[in-house]
Design brief:
Strand content: under 5%
Subcellular location: Cell membrane
Membrane topology: Multi-pass membrane protein
Keywords: Cell membrane, Ion transport, Membrane, Potassium, Potassium transport, Transmembrane, Transmembrane helix, Transport
Largest sheet: 2 strands, antiparallel
Number of strands: 4
Number of helices: 21
Organism: Ensifer adhaerens
Distance between the termini: 28 Å
Subunit structure: The system is composed of three essential subunits: KdpA, KdpB and KdpC.
Shape: globular
Oligomer: single chain
Amino acid sequence: MSIIGWLQISLLFIAVLIVIKPLGLYMARVFSGERNVFSPVLGPVERGLYLAAGVDPKKEQGWLAYTMSMLAFSLAGFVSLYAILRLQAHLPMNPQGFSGMPSDLAFNTAVSFVTNTNWQNYGGETTLSHFSQMAGLTVHNFVSAATGIAMALAVTRAFARSNASTVGNFWVDLTRSTLYVLLPIAVVMALAMVWTGLPQTFHADLSATTLEGAKQTISLGPVASQEAIKQLGTNGGGFFNVNAAHPFENPTAFSNYLNIFAMLSISAALVYTFGQMVGNRRQGWAFIAVTAILLISGVAVVYWAEAHGNPILTALGLDAAQGNMEGKEVRFGQAMTALYAAVTTGLSDGGVNGMHGSLTGLGGLVPMFLMQLGEVLPGGVGSGLYGMVVFAILAVFVAGLMVGRTPELLGKKIESREMKYAMFAVLILPVTILGFAAVSAMLPFAVASIGTAGPHGLSEILYAFTSAAGNNGSAFGGLTGNTPWYNTTLGFAMLLGRFAYAVPVMAIAGSIAVKTRVPASKGTFPTDTPLFVGLLVGIILILGGLQFFPALALGPIVEHLSMLAGQTF
């Protein structure tokens, strides 16, 4: 660990902190239907889209209609993307002549991008045509992120309104999220990434001669445009197989900064938007404080673990002062690799600039644990916000039991119905992750896919299902996931992690919206104070993390202790 490393990390968080309020206010204006800087240009486009789709933007939906619209849109997206991937050989813009994806891999990939997971059991530059990358994956990078934002807006309106039977219009929220938020910022970010060295071309590849005289084929394509929305939408799916560790996807230390900044900016600003729209900015800042405490703690642990090094490698003669550089790019170093690893798993992004499987036992534990907390730090765009609201509901219920007051959040009474829905949502992740991981650890053909025996092998399986169910998409490495078993089970884990979680959340929104919003009184437990921040952190750690402790104890914790003892498996 070094002062320079901590300075790099601090400057990144300061930059994000600076944009939270202005970006959050801008999004609040957009989602409230107010005129904004892009209205003269994009307003006619928005109205044209409504006209073409037969949508009345003034007609709102109840929570059930809103949810059914979201599910129908996601189903249509899955079918269209699955068709593109299967029929790739017969579609245009395929200069490499790639064949269509096998059915199980196409299922996994289509589910992955529709659910904003972007788990990749394939190598992008050796598997997908430019058409599949652009018309298939990049399009879903936009709309899957916009879908998450839309659901977060429905939850936000439920708390902002009183005695309401509607929570907005899904099609309007989807359109505005894409047109006014994701698209303009992605254009600027893509241009910035081209400036840093990312390719943006329709050429398939380039032949080069190495210093040794060997011939090398360098893959090219429309990388910058996909990379921009990959990070802004917390998608994480890379154009290249090694994701942001590839020099054409993340060439410099500055592009690495842009990647992390893009991941954090919209997700963090949406939390402020929540506070603005419900009329309590302090509540937004309280949620941001919770994410900051847990995320910065995660960064610190990973950075310490990697800078501390691996005693086993030290015993082999490596310089202990260099820490653990295995699986890391020298142009990023330990500090920015640690920051990237914690942010991408705390945010449900899933992009990586180093091998998570090469982290030390403790360093690898943290990214997995951050995903198991529920992807709320601040999570995926939209999904992290409504995940945080679910934990807040649980926190006020616990607070009410402790002090003998009726649970209340932002003027809305929290009753048994909301608690049942919240608990159902919270239990989805452990049931899915631990269930699939346990079965996979018992089946010989599933165990045959792991790359390393012992606790690290268990971590590979556990990390895969954690990443899938958490809609993260990052991989631990070592696990051969492109098999019928893992393509299918990981696909179902992604579906459960996205939609089995989202449906009860939308039910909570419908239940909250119809309640009368009452002003705070002396008997109200305040939810925008440091005391509540501490309580919420505790609830997230207990409900989001401790249920995974036995599994973690058998995997990364055992690996860490064995590393300290100088043992290998």
